[in-house]
Design brief:
The protein is mostly helical and about 190 residues long.
């Protein structure tokens, strides 16, 4: 069989099954309704009384649901107001604490400056009381070292160095071939 035929037949079969199922369900509901009417009639209750009782019960349930929704809406609103108030209180307290910390830090900085100034003043007084080191021995030492370096430089005489005394000992230059400089010569093959 072809795939299209199979799918077509499958759709038809499913359609038949659904139609049969719906028909059976409708018939079952009708039978159940007749049976319920018969049982209610035995007890003396009509179908209108049952409908009225169901409507009343549904109204009661809807009223309770609305009340519950109103209560939850009110509680959500209360909770939102309370959280907003709590948040604003916390932000206010945080601002107060921040200002206090800022003042404390400013005071601490001032105190630190004053203490540092006092410490520098005390150190300067201690330094003023101690004898100052003399610098002229260093200057004298530098002058002596400079004089010694000058003396050594003047006493040494450079020795004469003869680079080439005789022309005979001079190396001969290589002959130039075809106007080329000897360093540019091609290697001999």
């Amino acid at each position: 069989m072809d795939e299209v035929d199979v799918m077509t037949r499958a759709g038809e079969n499913v359609g038949k099954a659904v139609g049969t199922g719906l028909k059976a369900a409708r018939q079952g509901v009708v039978r159940a309704g007749h049976t319920a009417e018969a049982k209610l009639a035995e007890r003396g209750i009509t179908a209108d009384q049952v409908r009225g009782a169901l409507v009343e019960r549904a109204d009661t349930l809807m009223g309770k649901a609305e009340d519950w929704e109103k209560q939850t809406r009110r509680s959500r609103k209360r909770l939102a107001k309370k959280s907003a108030k709590t948040r604003s209180d916390l932000m206010g307290k945080a601002e107060v604490v921040r200002k206090e910390v800022k003042k404390a830090a400013k005071g601490a900085r001032k105190d630190a400056k004053v203490r540092a100034k006092e410490i520098r003043k005390a150190a300067a007084q201690l330094g003023a009381d101690a004898p100052k080191r003399r610098r002229w021995p260093w200057v004298l030492g530098l002058l002596i070292a400079a004089a010694a370096a000058g003396y050594v430089a003047m006493t040494r005489r450079p020795q004469e160095v003869h680079l080439q005394d005789d022309e005979e000992q001079a190396p001969h230059a290589e002959p130039v071939l075809n106007g080329q400089v000897p360093s540019q010569k091609e290697p001999i093959r």
